[in-house]
Amino acid sequence: MEGRLPIEKTPKGLHFWPGDFHLDPKRGVDRAVVSHGHADHAIPSNREVWCTPATAAIMHARYGSKLKSVIHPIELEQPFQINGIQLSFHSAGHMLGSAQTLIEHNGIRYCYTGDFKTTHDPSCEPFKAVRCDVLITETTFADPEYDHPSDSDELDRLEAWAGYTWVVGAYSLGKSQRITRLLTERFPNRKVMVHPEPAVFHRIYEDYGMGLGEWEHYDHHAFKRTNDLILIVPPKVLSSFHGRPGIVTMFATGWKRPYIRATHHMQISDHADWGELLRLVESSGATTIMAVHGSGTELQNHLQKAKPHINVIL
């Protein structure tokens, strides 16, 4: 594309100026389109918010009375307008309710991915590819170093700690629910307990039809009496279990150099790896790429050689 793009990076976040709305703003704005419920994308101080119903439920649960926004819940695939600009949400596969935003303006299709992954995840809606002219994509793991292993391979590795109690650290929203579904399905004979923080979001997932398997709320006394069980906790709690006899601590993350101490690291990511990102570029048909939420330098260098007709904006 030639000329100025109608979407710009600003201190408040991505601004689509023809409609005067922001995408996942970092500071409070009048009109915000929110891709999903993680706190670095869904803040409580916007005046009006457009998001999926599941994201709205997550925001209400997270913020309670601190949520100052008027929320407009919009179903996936349902067109809507903001200041005369047509938009629609399409599943991003990142977590429950996560959505890509398709913006159509003057015959040009702009797709903002938010956080996304294309791999199978039964705990949320599957990713849906969207054809567009301009792709605004996250680049969290936009590096050839990142080639995420399959979930089944990672679960196979856990067999090395049969007979131990496993305490798994995972982010309370998104990762904990995915890990719960994976572990209850793969290890049906192990009792799974869940810390109160992620359990709040477990209930929302189940309310929206995402079965997570058989799990129960964490009970300290039952935990001490039971061997060979699984406890899922927030990362900040994991260190309190590290080094205890009979317990193996694990941290679930996509990062190759995790910052949380644990006996074992489960490389399970809710962000696209390098291969997924390249396949997204191909399937989108976009000729302009804007990199957000991470460094896009590797992607820019790769596409300059492999697909020189594609312009990458950092």
Describe this structure as you would to a colleague:
This protein is an alpha/beta fold. The protein folds into 2 domains: 7-144 and 271-313, Metallo-beta-lactamase, Chain A, CATH 3.60.15; 151-267, Rossmann fold, CATH 3.40.50.10890. Helices cover 23% and strands 26% of the residues. It is built from 8 helices and 19 strands. The strands form 3 sheets. Strands 7-8-9-10-11-18-19 form a 7-stranded mixed beta sheet, covered by helices on one side. A 6-stranded mixed beta sheet has the order 1-2-3-4-5-6. A hairpin with a 7-residue loop joins strand 8 (85-91) and strand 9. Helix 1 runs antiparallel to helix 4. It is globular and about 65 Å long. The mean pLDDT is 96.
